[in-house]
Task: inverse folding
């Protein structure tokens, strides 16, 4: 067998091995995506609406804290769809330089990122739980503040409430009624005097 034939045979053998491995790799990757998709659907039912990121690969420069280069798994909104997501961000804080690849929903992210992020899924769920707890307390505090403000404004509004048209009309009617009674009493006096005079004249 010539050297070329030997090389060709080796290539064929390795390619056949690669084909079998690729098939297994694709099957394993698809199964991973399916499992994460099940978790994703469970998270969507919670309707969290919170964005959280967890770093699973850090290539930042230890000598320069301003420079960062990390891969992250998180939960965020991508193209109007919430889900487990991946991204690669890098930049330099000192120069206000920031770059990003992604975010991608887990299903659409590069396979390498998906495989390397799996170990941090548990940390992501934990971070989501903590963030939900913190956010709940913030909302409760803000709701209390707004409620107290609304109560205070309501008291002021009630004590300085302007009269309505109906109330002004009712007040005017009372005034007219009172005036009318006085007028009636005056008219009644005049009529009595007239009757008295007529009676005197008739007796004469």
Result:
């Amino acid at each position: 067998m010539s050297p070329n034939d030997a090389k060709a045979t080796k290539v064929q053998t390795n390619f056949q091995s690669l084909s079998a491995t690729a098939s297994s790799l694709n099957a394993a990757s698809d199964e991973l995506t399916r499992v994460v998709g099940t978790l994703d659907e469970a998270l969507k039912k919670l309707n969290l609406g919170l964005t959280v990121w967890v770093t699973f690969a850090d290539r930042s420069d230890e000598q320069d804290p301003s420079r960062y280069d990390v891969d992250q798994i998180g939960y965020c909104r991508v193209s109007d769809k919430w889900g487990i997501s991946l991204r690669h961000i890098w930049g330099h804080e000192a120069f206000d330089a920031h770059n990003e690849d992604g975010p991608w929903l887990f299903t659409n992210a590069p396979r390498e990122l998906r495989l390397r992020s799996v170990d941090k899924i548990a940390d992501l769920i934990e971070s989501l739980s903590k963030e939900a707890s913190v956010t709940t307390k913030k909302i409760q505090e803000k709701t209390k503040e707004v409620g107290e403000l609304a109560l205070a404004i309501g008291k002021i509004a009630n004590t300085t409430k302007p009269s309505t048209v109906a109330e002004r009309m009712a007040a005017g009617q009372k005034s007219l009624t009172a005036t009318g009674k006085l007028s009636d009493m005056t008219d009644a006096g005049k009529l009595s005097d007239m009757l008295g005079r007529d009676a005197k004249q008739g007796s004469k």
